Amino acid sequence: MITLRQLEALYWISHLGTFERAATRLNTTQSAISKRIQELELVVGLAVFDRNQRGARLTEKGEHLLAMAEEMLRLQEQILELKTSGETPARRLRLGVTELSAMTWFPRLISKVRELYPKVSLEPHVDTSRALDAMLRDDELDLIVIPEVFPSDEVICVRLADVSNAWMARPGLVAPTDEALTLEQLSKYPAVIQGGRSGTGLFYNRWLRSQGLVFPQAIASDNLMALVGFTIAGVGISYLPRQCLRPLVDEGRLVVIPTRPVLPPIPYSAVYRNDRPSAFTAIIADLMCDICDFSRQLQS
């Protein structure tokens, strides 16, 4: 195993020119310094110093090793400085959310993180739930917000909110009725639904199958705004987030279709890997709990 003592010996020998001077600098003996270099050469499997030359002259491989040793020793100094430094070290935070978060509360979260942690480099990413889950597992994202549709022992889920959805349509597409429509009655209408890369789509497609409901000619899209546009244009009925689209209902561009049974709410969570323990990630997840609000669009 390579140790910092070995790398320190290599560094000071190369900078002071002899084993003896390095020993004096490190307050040890020349034999101890020689032993550290011998152990280092044994571990890496190459000669660090050229024994055919006078003085402590590095081999070509030894020079490459010295460069890496200097970097490791600098990192050691930075780690030790954390104890005495009053400043938070610079870091990056890679966040992933779906469209619904991006169009409601996520911008407000970004502003709050910037306010609280000005040195943090933020890398936001908006994509489908399936894509975000894959990026989290590939260590391309630190924290994602998606519906709870990918159960796994490898992640930690912090529940944020339940999102209520309702069947909606363009006014006039579905005949008004005093009674709630059954799922069988709904199936007679053209539908636009979310696809298999959408967490909402996966959640509701599973639920609809459990209820025996199939839309024979449904149009599927993983893009929420496209679904809203299709529904407003009268392409078909669709399940859409009830609260944040309330303005479109109030404007008369969409109507809510009463149904029985009603759609179950979708649980949204902040998700991060449990093999990447990070107090900072947990803090941001808790901050999401305070800020998360799916009821209004374009929050600032």
TrEMBL record:
Keyword Transmembrane helix appears in the UniProt entry: no
Domain (HTH lysR-type) ranges: 2-59
Keywords of this entry: DNA-binding, Transcription, Transcription regulation
GO molecular function annotations of the record: DNA-binding transcription factor activity; transcription cis-regulatory region binding
CDD domains the record matches: PBP2_LTTR_substrate (cd05466)
Pfam families registered for this protein in UniProt: HTH_1, LysR_substrate
UniProt cross-references to InterPro entries, sorted A to Z: LysR_HTH_N (IPR000847), LysR_subst-bd (IPR005119), WH-like_DNA-bd_sf (IPR036388), WH_DNA-bd_sf (IPR036390)
Alphabetized PROSITE patterns for the sequence: HTH_LYSR (PS50931)
Name this protein carries in UniProt: LysR family transcriptional regulator
